Amino acid sequence: MNVTQYKENEPKLLLEEYFVGETTAYGVFEKRSGEVVNQFKVKITGTFEDNVLTLIEDFEYLNGKVEQRIWKINKLSDGLYEGTTNGVIGIAKGQVSGNAFNWQYVFDTQVGDTSYHLKFDDWMFLQEDGVLINRAHVSKWGFNVGSVTLSFYKNS
Question: 151 vs 86, 122, 123, CA distance in Å?
Fold first, then answer.
């Protein structure tokens, strides 16, 4: 898919507008077989200053694990974004067009005592009423290992 194919879709997504303030997301991680192996909730606090979107993400997993991720996302020209956070190898790169955002990065994921570098290809679509749906395809060496589905909701 090419993100620009969604350029006419509404409502228009601007990350720096959508994520400023408080947002909550709920998600699941599925193995390639479709089995849900993890569920989680994320509380997100966002600020935008000097063309940098900062997202503080507090994760609470069903198994009781908690973690925090702090994204620094630079808004570039022509709907392009670049970002970093703990766990991302190199720089995440993305583009917004219409109601869609494609975000790609490699994430260092710990499973037990083993570390895996997994490629994430996130597709986010803004819906009516401020609902943002995210579907991430996760791969290693070009092979599908699973997917992550998230629904974001703006807190009033």
Answer: 22, 13, 12
Six token digits for residue 28: 């699941």
Give residue 40's identity as a one-letter amino acid code: F
In a domain, 11, yes or no: no
Dig out the tokens for 116 from the structure: 């895996």
Backbone angles phi, psi at 16, to 5 degrees: -70, -15
pTM (2 d.p.): 0.94
How many separate domains does the chain show?
1
The answer to whether residue 2 is domain-embedded is no
pLDDT at 109: 87
Sequence-distant (≥ 6) Cβ neighbours of residue 51 within 8 angstroms: 74, 75
Torsions phi, psi for 17 (to 5 deg): -95, -45
Domain boundaries, position 113: 23-154
CATH code of 49's domain: 2.40.128.20
